[in-house]
Structure prediction request, 393 residues.
Amino acid sequence: MNSNQDQFETKLIHASSSGLVEQKTGAVNVPIYLSSTYHQESFDDFGPFDYSRSGNPTRLALEQTIAQLEGGSRGLAFASGMSAISSAFMLLSSGDHVLVSEDVYGGTYRFITEVLNKYLIDYTFVNMTDLNEVAGAIKQNTKVIYIETPSNPCLNITDIEGVVKIAKANYCLTFLDNTFMTPFYQSPLELGVDIVLHSATKFLSGHSDIIAGLAVTKNEELGEKLAFIQNTFGSILGAQDSYLLVQGMKTLGTRLKQSSGSAMKIATHLVDHPLIEEVFYPGLRFHRGYPIHLRQTKGDGAVLSFRLPNKAIAKAFVESMRLPVFAVSLGAVESILSYPATMSHAAMPRIEREKRGITDGLLRLSVGLEHVDDLIADIDQALEVAGHQFVIS
Ligand SMILES: *Cc1c(COP(=O)(O)O)cnc(C)c1O
Prediction:
């Protein structure tokens, strides 16, 4: 059982068993309830579960766990991060307007510009690191301000409390994508945010195995509304994936602490290398958002980006790396190296991409659980090979 006084690492281990335990068997793990429907004992008084789209005991254990970890009143589990995010936007009505961080996740950008607009919901993208720009972009019909911090891939930092203050003054809700920091390092609801969203595919599950999304609302009223959308739209997380996510989250603290420590060492190491033009990591003192990040988080995370001089050198570097997988996604036990220009931001026109600092030499590294010395040795030998490319080009 959890106590409110417990440290976060302790809560991670015991949160999933604090609500619905298997009372009859004493099983230490949440059972996987593969049941779409539930027998009703009474003709006119139904039990807590009737049909698994509306509620499933394994999913409920997960939903109660994330609600507890984020300090919210209601947690909801979805089939993907995108389905959690798009379901939250379904709280809006036609005629409403949303204010969105300009360097938002690509799938969120696509949903807002190519789906939400069809329902006559208007949007403005702003540089959310500039509070004056946020305040200036509010319209009479603005209902939601959508934050993602740190952002991808340049790890820009938004002042959460600053944006919440503007939102509250204008009767807007705030949604925040907490995928990069997770509740282990960042507690948006405590800072006044209304809904926290996650791609649980990343750090929360942590093993590159499932696609999953989570949402947590600050108050019960919003929770009821979002649960209605979840049940109506039907994009729920299945019982087996719910189980895997519950298990993955237990080790979140240990994983994130080790990966963040390694990321800091790697970032510091890269800063000194002559071939690296720029390093983006919110734990570095000269990072633009450092003071705000320090104030609103408990750690720096496992993702960093760095800029090599050009595409040929980036290619030589990637092809010489031995340990990380070269892939999209992040937040796993194995390090993941990705090339934003053709992966996460492939759909973005070159001009828009470069305006956001996503040049042809930019690489993103999500640091896993390999020994940091092995990762640094691997990076060094790949930089050496890439350096020869520099001499050629
Ligand atoms: C991956 C990701 C998403 C989308 O989540 P899926 O689980 O892939 O649908 C949303 N936001 C961020 C920050 C992400 O990294």
